[in-house]
Amino acid sequence: MKRIVLLASGSGSNVENIANYFKDNPLVTIATVLTNKRDAKVIDRCNRLNVNALYFNRQSFSKSDCLLNIIKGMQPDLIILAGFLLKIPENFVAAFPNKIVNIHPALLPKYGGKGMYGMHVHNAVKNNNETETGITIHYVNENYDEGAIIHQAKTAVISTDTAEDIAQKIHVLEYEHFPKVIDQLLSN
Ligand code: GAR
Questions:
Q1: Which of 28, 73, 111, 166 is 20 to 30 A from 153 via CA?
Q2: Where does (6R)-10-formyltetrahydrofolate bind (predicted)?
Q3: For ligand 1, what atom is nearest to the CA of residue 15?
Q4: Is 104 a catalytic site residue?
């Protein structure tokens, strides 16, 4: 049995997609979904999907080993960041080398780094008149969006696309690729 822990800060549509992808797979279980936002929509989704969800405060995450020790106790094979917006502290990176995987809504190294998340990314892509964008699935290291790239996928951007249209195209790519990449990593 492989165990994954998911971290999310917002809507959690990727969490829902991943949960649905693995729900009939007896070899993979979601140990829990952890969120740093008390009112995040991902909590409602987890309740509906019958998936454990836990809220944690920033102190227990960034300023102590409290959350780290809780996650260690879950013995995860992978820790998946699915729309998680806090920087991963060094004690996590050291404790789980090549086990923390992030999805970023752009073609890294473009549009990465601090402050580059969600609509900020899509607005920047739009404002720079990019003709393509995409997703990057990568390992997490101590710097924002700089860990080794595992998988990228591209989509075209046309001049009439709004930032919201781009966000939608990115979500389509994320739903298609992210669970499959996780599945592949778990079976390696
Ligand atoms: C996703 O598009 C994900 O790539 C992005 O947040 C969105 C979360 O959507 N992550 C980042 O921007 C991380 N820097 P969701 O909550 O509906 O899954």
A1: 28
A2: 58, 102
A3: 18
A4: yes
CATH number of 86's domain? 3.40.50.170
Closest CA to 67 of 97, 35, 39, 42: 35
Which ranges of 50-162 does DSSP label H, i.e. alpha helix?
58-62, 66-74, 90-95, 118-127
Helix (H) or strand (E) holding 29: strand 28-35
Owning domain of residue 61: 2-104+137-152+175-187
If one counts the domains in the chain, the total is 1
pLDDT band at 110, cuts 50/70/90? Answer: very high
Q: Tell me, what's the pLDDT at 144?
A: 87
Is the residue at 77 inside a domain?
Answer: yes
Is 28 a domain residue?
Answer: yes
Smallest CA separation from ligand 1 atom 11, residue: 117
Residue numbers in the known binding site are: 12-14, 58, 102
